[in-house]
Design brief:
By secondary structure, the protein is α/β, with parallel strands linked by helices. It has six helices and 13 strands.
Length: 270
């Protein structure tokens, strides 16, 4: 009996030592828990000279919906460390007045005093204007020990997206191996969406292989309005955030703890 007790005590000590070592490694690498609020496809129309033909998109309500998301999260007691905007923040970024609509979104989010990372979408208009408004850039963002890379992909005449490989390799060259990598882009990488409309980025299989080689922890996208939960491929998770513009007006909170993460899907009660 005494031998059994000593054996169990030894096992518990090993478990506690392992947990302590894990915590200490996190401290050494500067990796802390991180809460990310993810919002995609708000398709806002405020003063822009544009009418959306799709009745399921509540474009004119988007600013109100966005404010409700921020208020709901704030009242929940969850502290958000970074906000990821997954593109298509406005419905037509090239319309007269769209810049003012983007500025209205920026001013609403600015009140949170939380860092914002933007992945431009196909509806946002010139990506350089979007990034300038949100005071953001394409590339690596180091936040609480996590390496978060946002991509500005090119949109083609058929509305498909394509990735500049030179820029992607340049961004990954600025990462280190002992800290988690999270990537953001508007178009889904994986799984393949078998529809006529080109939801996936071009060369998605090649990009997924590259992400795996680089040890990407989680790839986050928007664009596919229904949303897709985490799918694993070769060690990398792929997540598509649903559209805020369409009922039931969903958004995500992702809670990272080192190389572990938990995805919470929330919806507004309107």
């Amino acid at each position: 009996m005494e031998d059994m007790r000593n054996k169990m005590n030894g096992i518990m000590k090993d478990i506690m030592d392992t947990a302590k070592d894990s915590v200490e490694r996190g401290k050494v690498n500067g990796i802390e828990p991180l809460n990310m609020l993810v919002i995609a496809d708000s398709h806002y129309i405020g003063i822009a000279d544009h009418v959306c033909p799709l009745i399921e998109r509540k474009c004119t309500l988007a600013l109100k919906l966005l404010q409700e998301v921020l208020d709901t999260v704030n009242n929940s007691g969850t502290t958000i460390d970074v906000i990821a905007l997954m593109g298509d923040m406005v419905d037509n970024g090239n319309a007269l007045g769209a810049k003012e609509d983007l500025l209205a979104i920026k001013e609403t989010i600015k009140k949170t005093k939380v860092p914002v990372i933007v992945a431009p979408g196909n509806h946002d208009g010139p990506s350089e204007v979007l990034l300038e408004i949100f005071e953001d850039y394409e590339g690596v963002h180091n936040i609480k020990g996590y390496q978060i890379i946002n991509f500005v992909d090119k949109y083609n005449e058929d509305e498909s997206a394509s990735r500049c490989w030179d820029k992607m390799e340049e961004h990954f060259s600025q990462t280190v191996q002992n800290k988690p990598i999270i990537v953001l882009q508007h178009n889904p990488i994986y799984p393949y969406i078998d529809r006529t409309y080109p939801y996936n980025i071009r060369e998605w299989e090649k990009i997924a292989q590259y992400y795996s080689q680089k040890g990407v922890l989680l790839s986050i996208s928007g664009h596919a309005h229904w949303g897709i939960p985490v799918n694993m491929k070769d060690g990398t998770g792929y997540l598509t955030c649903p559209a805020l513009a369409e009922s039931p007006h969903r958004y995500l909170i992702i809670k990272f703890d080192g190389y572990l993460y938990n995805v919470e899907e929330h919806k507004l009660l309107c």
